[in-house]
Design brief:
By secondary structure, this protein is of the alpha/beta class. 34% of the residues lie in helices and 19% in strands. The chain is built from four helices and four strands; from the N terminus they run H-E-H-E-H-E-H-E.
Length: 122
Amino acid sequence: MRDLLLSLGELCSREKDEALTPSERPTSISIVVPVYNSAPILPELVARLKPVLASLTSYYELILVNDGSQDGSWEVISKLAEENSWISGIGLMRSYGQHNAVLAGIRAARYEVIVTRPVGWN
């Protein structure tokens, strides 16, 4: 396994005409997102991530870690995971904080490159 430290922002910020070379293209990507009271924006996050990930590799996953949300985020995560085989959810019993939620997602990640991002990123 290659040692890579990649930012999804760096991968996505290239000019549209500038393609990744085969050596730059990751073979697999896990995205870990800690979720706290973010139910309304999760579907948009998924809609934006899917084409980007699909353009980078055939093997990708999104791990949404619910950190004790009170707004129905877990229900949205469960529905998204049911509708999309590349999405999985982890539900923490209470809010343990962003760092612990990220760690739970990293431990569950299956792929070569792991990218962590907060849920509200652009």
